[in-house]
């Protein structure tokens, strides 16, 4: 990547508002119905030592232009440690300059330093531009049926647990 103004770093509390705006932009672009990320929730869940997810922020000229979130994962089929990347986003204005690739590379470095040997993530089937970039870095694409339990169904299942 030739853009020397790009900086990838861990976000700080002062970045919470920019980070929330990036998360909401991703959700909007992915046609997700819920946009609930606030600066307070970004500060609590994406920033600092007690964050729920690890986060990297991409900046160009001091402006936040992208981010990635990640957390440890395990693939029992291969007895292998890795990282799952739930969010990878670059603003429309900053696309095509290698920022998403740089974010994924930074996650890969972090993962390798911690003994992981893979990254995995999902993308929307209609997001051909992202899928093309993933293929260009050698990512394997395979069909997946993703499942989620959220809201009332989650609560009902948890209430029925015999723990």
Describe the structure.
- The chain is of the alpha+beta class and 163 residues long.
- It has one domain: Gcn5-related N-acetyltransferase (GNAT) (Aminopeptidase).
- It has helices at residues 16-29, 39-46, 99-113, 128-136, 152-159; strands spanning 6-9, 54-60, 63-75, 80-90, 118-120.
- Strands 1-2-3-4-5 form a five-stranded mixed beta sheet, with helices on both faces.
- Helix 1 (16-29) packs across helix 2 (39-46).
- The radius of gyration is 17 Å and the shape is globular.
Integer count of domains:
1
Number of strands: 5
The 3D shape can be described as globular
Topology-level CATH name? Aminopeptidase
Order of helices and strands: EHHEEEHEHH
CATH architecture annotation = 3-Layer(aba) Sandwich
Average pLDDT score: 93
Helix share of residues? 25-40%
- β-strand percent reads 15-25%
Count of runs of 4 or more consecutive helical residues: 5
Distance between the termini: 51 Å
Question: Which segments are poorly predicted (pLDDT under 50) over 5 or more consecutive residues?
Answer: none
Side by side, the strands of the main sheet go 1-2-3-4-5
Oligomer: single chain
CATH class: Alpha Beta
Main sheet attributes: strand count, strand direction, barrel closure: 5 strands, mixed
Radius of gyration: 17 Å
């Amino acid at each position: 990547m030739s853009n020397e103004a790009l900086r990838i770093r861990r976000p700080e509390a002062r970045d919470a508002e920019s980070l929330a705006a990036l998360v909401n932009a991703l959700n909007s672009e992915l046609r997700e119905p819920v946009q609930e990320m606030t600066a307070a929730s970004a500060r609590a869940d994406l920033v600092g030592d007690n964050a729920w997810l690890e986060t990297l922020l991409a900046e160009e000229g001091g402006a936040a232009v992208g981010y990635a979130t990640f957390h440890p994962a395990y693939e029992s089929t291969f007895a292998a440690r890795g990282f799952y990347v739930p969010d990878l986003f670059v603003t429309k204005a900053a696309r095509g300059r290698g920022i998403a690739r740089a974010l994924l590379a930074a996650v890969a470095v972090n993962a390798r330093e911690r003994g992981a040997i893979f990254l995995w993530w999902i993308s929307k089937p209609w997001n051909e531009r992202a899928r093309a970039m993933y293929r260009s870095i050698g990512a394997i694409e395979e069909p997946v049926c993703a499942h989620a339990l959220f809201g009332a169904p989650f609560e009902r299942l948890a209430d029925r647990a015999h723990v």
